Amino acid sequence: MTGPTGPTETPDEPDRRDGPSDPAEPEAAEAGGSAGAPEVPRPADPDPSESGVARKGGASEGGAPVQAGAEAVPSWKAILRGLGPTGLGLKIGAPILALLISLGITMILLRLTGADPVSSVQSMVDYGTQQHSIVDIINRATRYYLSAVAVAIGFRMALLNIGVDGQYRLAAFLAAALGGAISLPAPFGQILVIVAAVLVGGLWAAIAGVLKVTRGVSEVLSTIMLNAIATGVIAYLLNDKRLAEPRPNSNDVATATIPHSGRVGPLNGFLSAIGIDLPGAVYGLLPLAIVVGIVFWIVINYTRFGFDLKISGLSPSAAQASGVSAKRMIVITMVASGAVAGLIGIPGLLGESYDYSLNFPAGLGFTGITVALLGRNHPAGIALASLLFAFLDQTSDILQEVEVPKEIVGVMQGVVVLTVVIVYELVRRWEIRLQQRSVAAELATGHDLAREAAGSTS
Amino acid sequence: MRRGLKITLVTVTGAALTLGGASACGGKKAGGDSGDDNGKKTLKVGLAFDIGGRGDQSFNDSAAAGLAKAEKDLHVTTKEISAQPDEPDSDKESRLRLLASTGYNPVIGVGFSYTASLLKVAKAFPNTKFFIVDADGCKVEGANVAGSCFSEEQGSFLVGAAAALKSKTGKIGFIGGVDVPLIQKFFAGYEAGAKKAKPGITVLPPKYLTEPPNFNGFKDTGLGNEAAKGQLDKGADVIYHAAGGAGIGVIKTVGAAGKWAIGVDSDQYNQPAVADVKSHILTSMVKHVDLSVFNFVESVAKNQFKPGTVQYNLQNDGVGYATSGGNVDDIKTKLDDLKAQIVAGKITVPTKPQ
């Protein structure tokens, strides 16, 4: 992985340990553990004491361009950015292992609450695989997915957008008010609502981005506060004197209902055409979420913007040195994150509720954070993670049926996320160590890898 | 990579074992369940709670009390499922569907936010009876759906009058849980009642603990504490709360300051949670959710089910004020006079703040 950079860093070792002038360095050396570069020339001393739990590094920004290697990334950054093992077997094995561990922990917890763990899990599976539940799970996962992608965009460059929640609620609310106020022939009404939501979400997030680059306000703080402000703004505007529609005798307040021409029909027709018959209504905008995922993947992996994003996240100074404006990247990333956040409420708005009311689902932005962590910021991983979370949430009711408190589902979700994060980090370090050992073994036998590599390329 | 392969193998084997075990034992459980169903022929009542759920010392607990009474008096079996905060309508729908499809009949939804979902699910289960507490707009449809709604403003009117008559400073306060139309209705009645009983009274601006979608204002007693302190500082000496569980904090703070608190939903004078300050509970605006739930279960048990909604108001004592503690005994005639005027239609209580 980082074989060639390892030996070149070795002479710096005393400086790295003793020179606290650069805050990132000791952090990195510690968090990366003995798997770091200095170990390479000492293959006989694998230092087993370093196999502990992922340690949280401080708020260090990677300052030195020399730390291009993955082992120099502090754990918290590695976790946020979704770094994991590179080998295919480990990529598949690690999550399976993590899920099994969390299943085991869950079963123990269920046993501790006095329930029969096996039958509880069985009834969850039975209920979760009923057709109605499948539809609900898919719809729920659609919301979680968009939310997690919005969060993941920020995570990719170590920006914590806690404000997804406020961004999507404000976006859905204003878009709903707009969609209910004007009636346009399809598909213009739908497009208008979607574009409005994207704009509102992006602009609301941009405030946090601009504050960060101009005033140095941490995006964590500003987005949390923007959530509260969004709540206040919505509460003020969601009033029948303002943007809500008067509904006499009703305990609900809602925006005007979006007319039929502005709605998106269910996907069931298409699904039954390809042989999947489901009851209820699968969100017609489910494909939109898939498209967002694909675009995210392409942009991150195959565009210059995606490269700039990753580099800015890894090392702002390295990015700066190669001509990437970190400030510009921060604002753009926040806007992109907010724009995707704006979409979270739209499948439900155009496909189910047709208005923004007191019953509009809230809190999805926070679910998105955990789903993104669980999905390792990878579009496919997030898809699986959102399905898993949707399944757990959907089946929480059946647990009450069998006399298990539904709160256990929240515990399960926490256990899954923690286990996955920890297992990934441990496997990642273990793999790095393994690679370094093999490199060291090669060196010990007298091979000159650098020359061999040069020889093979020339 | 060799070790990686080993780990993968171990995990796959583990997965196979776990899943195999799960399916084997699950089968046994399912068999046991159906046996139970055949043995008993009692009514199985399923009840889905609103946010807050059981233990909110208020609205949901009142519904639970009605269900508990039905369980005792009518010998029915019951099942309660709580809601999650911030859930979308589809969750409520699937919760009701779960109850109906697992054989619960009748099925009860507590809280107006269940209205739309309940009506939808009721169509899919024509043989199951459904009931909605606080039916939105006091309207239900379908031959198998009944609902109850409450004239909270009428009860609040009376406790507002009591507050005005008992106030020495001439200032009274109101603390609402969440700023939603339902709670604004409580304030509208309270203010109107106070002004009617004593035109010169100052009703402090209402304090709502949280704005939707943050429904903590129905739960967080700390918020109730702070808000009560604020209103006491402004000179209020009678404070009415419509804040569910958070209202416990209001009552405690107001009681500790030696002023009057007014409870809500059930007769809070008798609640253990506020037992140490109960001498400072002037009265409570009682909303008989328990009665509505019990009446409904009874009607189903006796095969007298009638679709449609029932309005619970002062006339049928579905709402009212509590007299426990005897603190309003001296003004009871005045309150009952106002009550008679409302029942006779001479006073129309507003449902929206002026």
From TrEMBL, chain B:
<keyword id="KW-1003">Cell membrane</keyword>
<protein>
    <submittedName>
        <fullName>BMP family ABC transporter substrate-binding protein</fullName>
    </submittedName>
</protein>
<dbReference type="InterPro" id="IPR028082">
    <property type="entry name" value="Peripla_BP_I"/>
</dbReference>
<dbReference type="InterPro" id="IPR050957">
    <property type="entry name" value="BMP_lipoprotein"/>
</dbReference>
<feature type="domain" description="ABC transporter substrate-binding protein PnrA-like">
    <location>
        <begin position="48"/>
        <end position="351"/>
    </location>
</feature>
<keyword id="KW-0472">Membrane</keyword>
<feature type="signal peptide">
    <location>
        <begin position="1"/>
        <end position="24"/>
    </location>
</feature>
<keyword id="KW-0449">Lipoprotein</keyword>
<keyword id="KW-0732">Signal</keyword>
<comment type="similarity">
    <text>Belongs to the BMP lipoprotein family.</text>
</comment>
<dbReference type="GO" id="GO:0005886">
    <property type="term" value="C:plasma membrane"/>
</dbReference>
<dbReference type="Pfam" id="PF02608">
    <property type="entry name" value="Bmp"/>
</dbReference>
<dbReference type="InterPro" id="IPR003760">
    <property type="entry name" value="PnrA-like"/>
</dbReference>
